[in-house]
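We modelled each protein-ligand pair independently. The example shown here corresponds to the pyridoxal-5'-phosphate entry; the chain sequence is given first, followed by the ligand as SMILES.
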Amino acid sequence: MVKKVRSHISQNEQLLFEMSSPGKKGYQLPDLDVPAIDPAAALGGSAVRSEIAGFPEVSEVEVIRHFTRLSTWNYAIDLGMYPLGSCTMKYNPRVNEQVARTEGLAWAHPYQPESLAQGMMEVIAALECALAEITGMDAVTLQPAAGAHGEMTGILLIRAALEKQGNPRKKVLCPDSAHGTNPATAQMVGYDVVNIKSNDLGMVDVAELVKAVDGDTAALMVTNPNTVGVFEEHIVQVAEVLHSKGGMVYMDGANMNALVGVARPGDFGVDVMHLNLHKTFSTPHGGGGPGAGAVAMKAHLEPFAPTPRLKFDNGVYSWDYNRPDTIGRVRAFYGNFGVLVRALAYIMAHGGPGLRNATMDAILNANYIRKGLEAFFDLPYQSPCMHEVVFSDDRQTNKGVKTGDIAKRLIDYGFHPYTVSFPLIVHGALMIEPTETESKAEIDLFIDAMQSIAREIDEDPQMVLKAPYTTRTSRVDETTAARKPIVRWKPAS
Ligand SMILES: *Cc1c(COP(=O)(O)O)cnc(C)c1O
């Protein structure tokens, strides 16, 4: 039986180019009441095209319906729960969008003189201040455009500070539970990456760490809570181990949705960290951006922060470019300003107690799922989880069904898949992050769906292996799809 709980509209759709017919347009202008000019004569022949090859000619209603129909092919956070672990796919309150569209903010120009940009600069100052408070750090830069970009900025700060002391050192340590961007960042900034084993609770093994840290160690890059959803309980001791040898602690703060208002990395020994504003602080993401990877740092790293830095003297904001130790710019202008506005709106709309509640609800929701599914799926780490829970497909593989197959079947139940096969430290991982914005009713539906799939696997694994049944296409060759995509929809013959 092909069980189907919810489905979304799905129609056939031609390419816009195939709908084209010569002379169709989306507008109609009145006849000229002034003399026509020849564009080639006015602009110079080389600036004027005679035609745009293959440009589709379609009516307004065709364009609107085309893109609206295409939008129904996608899953979205505004359709239902999106439990993609590590990505913090929370519902984005509309008030953030409203604020980001405020005329003076939305139409601000980066070349606007400082005297006409005081309001924008105040937004930046207020957000820097709020994030410093939330993280327990001394200074914040909002320039980096995403999480990985923030990591690079942070490790560049560490490198610059160590260089100033006379030796940039050679190694950066990454636990085996690290997000792939961590070792990639260390490598890009010129460090050798050393892998640190986790213990059987899924935490950094302090004994292993002590063995690895020496005078060549620049930093440890640690995600906390880490990618198995577990809080690094020994983080204070971990930081002491690094500091005692002159190294630093970089925290990947992509999982701050589990800490905001509850614990501050600055209080547990972190020197520098990034925040994914598009995750924790609620900007629609997943479609490739834009994002913002704010970097929060302790005072000893601030002299190296990207320029320009915001200054406030005699009631006036200005940009300070005169900073001899800076690593320089990491992005044009001042970062992805629209994302910064959304983050500040989100923080102010919640207030301190509201942010703390959101964190507690995110943790509660993940633990509710952990309890609801632990009788059905293997749970490699037993400790209570933070904002996300990681199962493995251990019990299902003896029927030939893997995490990717379960995820495909979940699509038939009306949910976006969880994160498949990450973190690598858990073989066949199912990484589930509900976030605080899901109601108990929605989470119960999800738990029902997962339990039902587990039963289907016991009864008829072959059926599950052919899922999904309710989508426009079912199983594709994922490598070929990524390398040689065929974007035209072909009706099944
Ligand atoms: C999302 C994520 C990143 C990378 O952030 P981007 O904004 O995608 O560059 C890094 N680390 C962890 C743990 C993440 O979840």
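The domain at 94-349 is CATH 3.40.640.10 (Aspartate Aminotransferase; domain 2).
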